[in-house]
Amino acid sequence: MSVPHVSKPVEFGDPKFGDFCVEYPNGLVDLSRSNHLDQQEHSGIDTTEEPGAQPGSSVTAPTLRAGQLDIPVTGDKTVRLDTDKTAFVIIDMQNFFLHQDIRDHPKGLACVDPLMKVVPFFRDNNIKILWVNWGLGDDELSTIPPSLARGFNANHGYRGFGSKLRGEFGRVLIKGEKNTELYGPLQGLFEDGRDKGTDFWIYKNRMSGLWNQTPLEDFLKENEIKTLLFAGVNADDCVLGTIIDANHKGYDCILVEDTTATTSPDITYQAVLYNAGNTYGFVTCTDKILGSQSS
């Protein structure tokens, strides 16, 4: 089940604040915030209605412009992005969640290869790459709510935030420790992008990267980012939490399916996909992204 196509062009949002999107009957959802419907009606495009047609049904989707990208999504639709206002948010692809010496997460490891392919594509299209990761300072340990601390005190061979892990992984989710580094080749992928100025490391101290006035939100506001593509683990915890908060704060949300995973039962992941595509935004995959169209 997916959101049905509109029967005529519809503009969502309030034009007075410049925050809007336009959806067209052909399945295009224009998130670029570059074309109001009333602008098109006065742009020289023939908008003469056929007899019996619904008002506005003859308005056609605008032509793809420079700096825009059309990405197919589920439901036989396409989203149009302004690449300058878009970021790829990769959440918690860290040793703590993926390394086989700490836990067994084969579905999470399966996300690594798609990320290695799609990150360079996004860089080439001027989309910022944001690696949003757990990383606590000692001064933050006392600020963790009891409910969250209890959840991270499970039977995984450690005793909560800041406790010592086996081997050389250091203390649980503390900045600078090996367990908070990105897993395997992803660390090198980040460092390459960091040196090029395309990738940014952003710490978080809760499940959601946008739970309050956070470093992630500061970055998004400073860079006037409006559209977010999401990857990472776990899909039903930190990824979904960030998507929900992003949706509440007015960001466009697009989940990249084959770059997200969870250790929870599959029915949980299916619920994430359903809500991501029907309530919070859209769902796509790396094959669709790599085959997407730019001007």
From TrEMBL:
Gene3D superfamilies: Isochorismatase-like (3.40.50.850). The keyword Transmembrane does not apply. Residues 86-286 form the Isochorismatase-like domain. Residues 37-63 are annotated as: Disordered. Keywords: Hydrolase. GO terms for molecular function: hydrolase activity. Belongs to the isochorismatase family. This is Isochorismatase hydrolase. It comes from Lentinula detonsa.
